[in-house]
Structures are given as C-alpha cells and as structure tokens.
Amino acid sequence: MQNAQSSDWRAQFWRQHPAFEVVADCVEALAWSDWPDAEPYYRQLSAAHLPIRFAEVSDVSYEQHIAATGAVPTRYANWHDYFNALIWNVFPNSKQALNDLHLLAKSGGSQRGSRRDAATLFDESGVVFACSYPALSDALMQMDWPTLFQTQRQQWHRQVKALMFGHGALDKLRSPYIGLTAHALVVPVDAWLLQQPMPILRAEIDRQLSKIISEMAADWTPADLYPLPLLGIPGWWPENDNPEFYANEQYFRRQRRRQEKSTRQS
C-alpha cells in the first residue's frame, strides 16, 4: 500500500541533521521502525491535542476541506505529507493561521494573489529565524552572509536559532545538497527563550508566529520572507567549518533574484 511518490522508511533519520530537532520528540514518540499500516498511520499522526486529524482524501479543495471537516488531506506513507503532519503537530496555531489566510484570500476574489503565494512559500520552504540579536536579523535581511555566518558565528544557537517550518524543505533535508535554501520569517525573542527545551521554545514560537501570520494576512508578500542558505548555518553542514565554503556566490547570493524583488509590486 506504499505510495509511489514515497520511499522506504529511514530509521533514525531525525538524528542525521540538526534541522530535524524541531520535530524530533514527535518522531521519537511515534517510535516507528517502518511505515505502519494505514489505520495506525493516520490514527497515530492525529495527536489527541490537535483540533484536526489526518486522512487519505483526494480531489478536494485543500483549505476548504480542512475548515469544513477538520481533516487534513494526507497521502499514506509519503514523506512530504508526513512532514506536513509533523509540523501541524508542533505548530498547530501557525498552521491554522496559514489555512485561515488562504480562505480569507480566496473569499476576496478569484485571483491567487501575493499573500497566498507568500503563505504557500512559507508553508513549503519556510524557516523561523528566532532571534534576540538585531544585528543578526539585519544581516539576514541584507543578505550579509559574512556577518551572519562568520563574524557573528558564535551567536548561533545562543542568540539565534533556525526552526524549520516548511514541510517541503524538511523533506529535502533528508538528502541535503548545496543550494538548499529556505525562506525565513524573523520572530524576535528574548535570549533566555532560546535556551529552553524545544517543546517550550516551540510553543512560544507557535504563539508568536500565528499572531504574526494573522496580522500580515492582508498584505503579506513573498518579499517579506528572506532567503536563508540552510547549509551555511553553523553545525548544519560539515564543510562550513571552512571559511572557503562561503565563497560560493551561486549559493550565498548577495542579491535577491529579480522575481523575488518584484513581488512587492505585484
């Protein structure tokens, strides 16, 4: 019954890259040694604390179906949809806010629009840039990679953390590659929060992030998200211990692509 778009279960995958820390406790709690049969697969993904559940559903309007039934369309044994379910488990309020944004935008007309583009981009490839040090947020926004990754390297994991949100990006991180880039939304936090256990940090980020998404619902665009080369994050790729790694200008671009710049005008 395995989905043709999926692949074999990879044991201990969440231990193979730090990006999976954000969902590691959920994965460990499931304690799967392989993809389970369909019934326990959906039942176990649908945690008791969630107002939604996961189900195999096809040929439906995704956001409307969630709003009407509380069921998130989820393909069986599919890595992409599995990560989506995990993110629903750890950031439920923020995922709900994204769904609400899509519904609100749809109610305003037939055109998709930039706010839905931004919501989809963050849902698929987003990362939360949780930061207590404004100089690092500035470096991210200015694409100042030498400052962000080298001169301020020691501030990572103390005054700034990257928490993966995009389920598509998490899927890609099973096999990382040069060029892998997420789209960051800055969430200012106090430094003490970054030192808390992941469930505490995650819950507070979810509270703040859902509020930010709701407040931006009227005029959010992809330009509000900042490119973040994931393999540049200290500890996220062995080769970035060598300063020469950051000399790759095809990966560490200093300017946005033209289509990213133009979204503000669309």
UniProtKB/TrEMBL annotation:
Pfam families: DUF3025. InterPro entries: DUF3025. This is DUF3025 family protein.
